[in-house]
Amino acid sequence: MMAAETADPAQAADPRKIFKREMLACLPSLRAFGVSLTGSSDRADDLVQDAIMKAWAKQESFELGTNMKAWLFTILRNEFYSQARKRGREVQDSDGLFTERLAVHPGQYGSLDLQDFRKALDELPDDQREAIILIGASGFSYEEAAEICGCAIGTIKSRVNRARNRLQERLQISGEEDYGPDSLSAPATQQLFHG
What PROSITE patterns does this protein map onto (predicted)? Predict the structure, then answer.
């Protein structure tokens, strides 16, 4: 007899256990979204914890079988903006994030490109950054992203399009050849690997 058949059907259908299992499955994506919003893994962990606590307290308002990931992302997003409003315009560098950006120079082209991308992403307006992260990095559909942000699908599509255009402009990307080493460094790199 298989293990699934020996399990107690009452336990398998327990809504609290199903809720907990689905919520735990979303944690890695939720944390990644938190890091993209806060720019700090420590702050993201705190934000995710706050969002999970709120979700747990409101689990009776979640309908099993619907999109748990979108529901949790909405809670996390709302918590992030709520905390941002409370902090106002205060700039704090207690974790050294801003100082680190000024002092650290990556040793590889990929690191440089990623650093440039992160800076360009941070310069986007909040609504555009949020939309492109939800669609491009978190894998949500336009419909799901619109639901999370509480706006129309067309608005999300417009935000993503404007974000992509701004990123391309800011990073001076016009085609595939603009990725990786610059035109002066590329021949030297090619010679190292193929020479």
Answer: SIGMA70_ECF
List the structure tokens of 84: 């941002």
Any idea which architecture 15-86 has in CATH? Orthogonal Bundle (1.10)
DSSP string, 83-102: HHHHHTT----TT-HHHHHH
Alpha-carbon distance of 120 to 132, in angstroms, equals 12
Q: pTM score, two decimals? A: 0.51
- Contact assessment for residue 140 and residue 67, using Cβ atoms and an 8 Å cutoff: no
DSSP per position, 6-48: HS-HHHHT-HHHHHHHHHHHHHHHHHHHHHHHHS-HHHHHHHH
**In the chain, domain spans:** 15-86, 109-178
For the record, the structure tokens of 89 come out as: 């315009």
- Rounded CA-CA distance 55/75 in Å is 7
